[in-house]
Amino acid sequence: MSSGEQQLEQTVVIVGVGLIGGSVALALRAAAPATRVIGIGRNANRMQKAVADGLIDEFASELLPEHGVRAGLGVICLPVDRIPAAADQLLSAGCDVVTDAGSVKQSICTQLSTRAGFVGAHPIAGSEQSGFEHAVHDLFRGRICVVCREDTEHEAVQRTLAFWQLLGMTCRVMSPAQHDRVLAMTSHLPHILASVAAGCVTRDQLEFVGTGFRDTTRIAAGSDELWTSILMDNAPSCTAAVDLALERLSQFRTALGGGEASAIRQLLSEAAVLRRSLTELE
Amino acid sequence: MSSGEQQLEQTVVIVGVGLIGGSVALALRAAAPATRVIGIGRNANRMQKAVADGLIDEFASELLPEHGVRAGLGVICLPVDRIPAAADQLLSAGCDVVTDAGSVKQSICTQLSTRAGFVGAHPIAGSEQSGFEHAVHDLFRGRICVVCREDTEHEAVQRTLAFWQLLGMTCRVMSPAQHDRVLAMTSHLPHILASVAAGCVTRDQLEFVGTGFRDTTRIAAGSDELWTSILMDNAPSCTAAVDLALERLSQFRTALGGGEASAIRQLLSEAAVLRRSLTELE
Predict the structure, then answer these.
(1) Looking at this predicted complex, what is its ipTM?
(2) Can you name the CATH fold of B11-174?
(3) What's the pTM?
(4) Would you kindly state where each structural domain of chain B is located, as residue ranges?
């Protein structure tokens, strides 16, 4: 094998086959058709359907030692509060490398800090939908995956980077703490603000919303259970992010109350310049 | 003509041929090809292009008395602060009916309250883009148009309702004050919150945004000039809306700071239920 070629994992176990786990399975199918994919999910009927739909080769209703023995690499696609236990179980059973798709990293990586085989990751991709029926093979293509291990020469880190890259992602390495501070601003705060925007409207006003409201509040329809665990897990950084938002929103309040058009325009303009630069990046 | 048929306007003048004015022109073209469409816009080069692109039949760089004489109906598609003067000018020149597309209604309708021919309207449709190059013929189809005149038997109101219905809209009649209170919650507050979400992120964090941030902040890229005039014009209702958002955001702050998972989940859940009911309406 030349150095340019990438060693493919022979067997991968995906723990949690929802939107993210299902999309990992489909992306892996497309990129490495020979890799055997084991899916772990509580609901046997749904897992049978995932096999029938061609996402996974086989399934089990719970994670067993044999999965850790057979799979070289495991991906945990569960809500953040259930990731550490599952990762621990897989590694204890003999799995070489375990990565995850949790959107908060510090508490997970701290709990698994003695496990050299665990490489925390956050593929920044998703949707407000849930369930593997909404999984798509290109969910990760062209997106950023944050990998939270700075010892990039370690074999487990190398294999994790190769895995997410195989799914079409560009990897960025940063510490779990830095990840959580950045994502509080780029993901968790927007979710809270979308929820506030949706929560301020009454049912009889819904007829009068336009595309602006629909876009702004789309993610507020996401799972409140999942998002509660994300926000709780990243509470310190989210608190700081909400404080910044409260300050900015208060500036709007003051400017509106005082009829200060130039202050309103300044606030809108700063945000517009930043948002337009994102569109230009696309 | 049977009672089921609708009398079509012979000549319509559109003052302001941007995204909204251009889309009115295209929708009118599609629904009533025989109607002559005059466009008024300051930039003669751009207006020539609008004629060449087939949006309008003729143009003028400024509104002249002849336009009020020739057109039976005028639609003002200008920023809210420029609507009253243009409407006044058209009506003074002899135009029978003048409606508008302004997204704030109370100040406009108050200024034109002695003009029986003016029927304030707000077609709830739009985009974060601007310019008639982004105009589309079906921007208004299936959408709600709020018409702010409760004397619905008046001929000017009848013709205005018929006009917006012709473009595919469903009309709802309400007072200007009620319109402004509702739209502060369904449109102006979401714009402010989208702007806050975008304004809290730094340029070097932009790489780490996902589709959630993109959706939530999309409208924040809109014209800060246009939105400053909307927010200033509806300052009292927007102030009340921002107060409600500050209260809700503070509840998130308290719950995050105190580690109250059930309070966070309650806040997220209320908004999620409401937002999901909107998706079900689609």
Answers:
(1) 0.89
(2) Rossmann fold (3.40.50)
(3) 0.89
(4) 11-174, 179-281
